[in-house]
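Field notebook, page 401. I keep forgetting to write these up properly, so this time I am using the form the group agreed on. The chain and the ligand, pyridoxal-5'-phosphate, are recorded exactly as supplied. Prediction of the bound pose follows.
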Amino acid sequence: MTFSVEAVRTAFPALREGAAHFDAPGGSLVPEVVAAAVSDTLSSAICQRGSNTMAERRTDAIVLSARQAVADLLGADPGGVVFGRSFTQLTFDFSRTIAKSWRAGDEIVVSRLDHDSNIRPWLIAADRAGVTVRWIEFDPATSEITVEDVEAQLTERTRLVAITAASNLIGTRPPIRQIAAAVHDRGALLYVDGVHNTPHAFVDVAAMGADFYGCSPYKFCGPHCGVLVASPALLETLAPDKLLPSVNTVPERFELGTPAFELYAGTTAAVDFLAGVGVPGSPTASRRDRLRGSFAAMAEHEDALRVRIEEELAQHPRVTVHSRARVRTPTLLFTVDGLEPREVAARLGALDINVPAGNFYALEASRHLGLGDAGGVRIGLAPYSSGVDVERLLEALRDIV
Ligand SMILES: Cc1ncc(COP(=O)(O)O)c(C=O)c1O
């Protein structure tokens, strides 16, 4: 398998600015083809979906292609792909809709590891419905969640478990397959935040057992929007608040107002881009198969860089790395004794090395790790991260610590 980071980098116009980017978990750079797809869509004749005019047919094709692209990316049914503004918006919407069937005394379960967008919407919905909330804790020493940690919170009254497939703060990837089995044993639903997982793993939602799986294309080289997938049959059972004249079909009933068609097109382009990253592959292979190969190549590349960074950080007595789970993404959170995280980020930023600091909205996790609201410094890797950038970062860090 050939993966050429130089070839990948030429696709990203933003890299010409010269900064070293370790900020992909906050939002990845976008290749030219994705920007072009957004721009071409906006400058072509589009209007509403339909079959009468070329503009209507084009608009329809853009939507259907994007649903198929996301389905290929996640191993989902295109008829169950819902687009939205962001994962946060989709989770607020789905929490309100799903909560309509909850009764006082029911229970839901959230995790301490999650980004706040997969915690707060559920807490608010639970509060309104008089539903009890139980928490899955993670062990700060290992930064892991086990299936037993989840099972301990499940009861006969559990209606839903919301958990991340990967922590955007420390990279931990909980064992979602086993968790799904335990959750389904209790007859509850599993709502998975795949925002940080999707850029780093070949996802198979069906095999994973997630009833709902959400992600954000802007984390995997796409435009700023969110996507949620579920089986069309499950979506049919849900009744979101909607306008009277808007269609009641699935998945359209969950997409309020006129969609951002240009972002649908950009998402398709991002999936196509990822399917072509560094994999010679047969041109006749399906997009899903090419994605499988690409994700393996990207993971190998990112893991090699992660190991190099970890080896170096281990040399510095003042540095503590908080990303410790055995199974995790190439995302490293660290703190430096005697230096505020934002100070470290500012000094790196002054050298055009983009390494952000904070709790990254994984506020509960940051506090649980003893890092308060200040969090830590986060190094994130992407397919366009290079060994040259890594050495630049490590040299700068040597000076700082
Ligand atoms: C793990 C995780 N979940 C959820 C979100 C929120 O995603 P969005 O910005 O699409 O609402 C983020 C964004 O950083 C994230 O990293």
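OBSERVATIONS:
- The first helix runs from residue 5 to 10.
- DSSP finds 14 helices and 13 strands in the chain.
FOLLOW-UP: compare against the apo run.
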